[in-house]
Amino acid sequence: MSQDRQAVLYGLGAVALWSTVATAFKVALAWMSPLELMWLAALVSWALMGALVIKQGNISTALRSGWKTASWAGLMNPVAYYLVLFAAYDRLPGQEAMALNYTWALAMAFLAVPMLGQRLTRMDIVAGLVAYAGVWVIATRGAVFNVTFADPLGVVLALISTLIWALYWLLNARDPRPLLVGQWQNFSVGLPVLTVLLLLGPGLQWHSWPAFGAGVYVGLFEMGIAFILWQLAVHQVSRTAKVSNLIFLSPPVSLMLLFLVVGEPILPSTMAGLILILLGLGLQNLRKNN
Question: Per the structure, how many domains does the chain have?
Fold first, then answer.
C-alpha cells in the first residue's frame, strides 16, 4: 500500500471518529456537567497517550524536558478549550455547537495576521464573510434580520472555543516536542488543574453506565485515537490537501447521528448555516492549494 493511500485511510479513520463525538458529547452532558465530562475524558486520554509514549520508548524524553511549554499549553488544551467547548454543547443543540466549532480554521487565518505577520488575501476575506454569514444564520436560527439570539451565551462560548483552539495551534507552531509527547505533557499539566476544579465544584459523582461510557468514549476517541490517526495522516501524506479535504465529510455524518441517536431534529437554519461555513472553509482551502 502506498504512503498516500495509507495516509488517506488514517485520515478517514480520524474523520469517522470525529463524526461521532458531537453525539457522545450530548449523551454524556445529559447526565454530567461539562467539568465532570472534561475530567473523565482527560483522565482516559492522558492514560492512553501515556501508554503510547511508554510503548514508543519516549517516556524518558517526556519526563526530562518540555515542561516549560506544557505549563501554559496544558492550560489551553485540554483545560480552557474543552471546558468552553463542553459548556457550549451544554447550552446549544449539538448540531449548532458542532457547526460553529468548524470556524476555528478561519479564526486561525485571521489571528495569524497579527501573531505571525501573515497577510490576508481577498480570498481569505471572502471566505471569512461567507463562513461567518453561516454563523449568523445558525446563531439567529434563521431569523437573520433579528439580532436577538436564541442562546447568545452558548453562541459566544462556541466561538470563544474556536479562538482558543486557533491560538493554541498558532502558539505551538514552533513547538519542538514530539506531538504525542507534547500532548501527554499538556494533559499531565491539565489533569491536576481539572481535578482541583472538580473537587471545588460539583465533586466526583456516579451518574450511570451510559454516562460513564460516553465520557470514556470522548477521552479515547475525540482526544486520543482520532488525534493520533490525524497526525499520522498529515505526517505521512505527500501533499496535505489530500487529507485536509476529508474533514468536510464529518458534518453530514455528525448531523445524521445527532438525529438518530440523540433525537435532535435538524433545523433548516443549521443546514443553511453549515453549508455557508463549509463553503467558506472550501474557499480558504482552495486558496491555500493554489
Answer: 1
- Asked whether the beta carbons of 258 and 94 are under 8 A apart, the reply is yes
Instruction: Give CA–CA dist 245/71, Å, rounded.
Output: 33
Question: What span, in angstroms and rounded, lies between the C-alpha atoms of 42 and 34?
Answer: 12
Q: What is the mean pLDDT of the chain?
A: 86
Q: Is the dihedral of CA 219, 71, 180, 99 positive or negative?
A: positive
Domain holding 45, by residue range, is 3-289
Confidence of residue 161 (pLDDT cuts 50, 70, 90): very high
- Please tell me the chain's helix, strand, coil percentages from 3-state DSSP, rounded to the nearest 5: 80, 0, 20
At which residue does the C-alpha cell 435532535 appear?
264
Which tens digit of pLDDT belongs to each residue from 57-110?
999 989 999 999 999 999 999 999 999 999 999 999 998 898 888 888 788 878
For 222, which DSSP code?
I
Report pLDDT for 280.
Answer: 85
* Cell numbers given for 118: 501573515
d(CA 290, CA 54): 41
Rg (CA), the chain: 19
Task: Name residue, grid cell 511549554.
Answer: 69
Whole-number Cα distances in Å, 154 to 80, 131, 259: 15, 18, 20
Note the pLDDT tens digit of each residue in 15-63.
899 889 899 999 999 999 999 999 999 999 999 999 999 999 999 989 9
Alpha helices in 75-151 (DSSP H): 81-91, 94-101, 104-116, 122-139
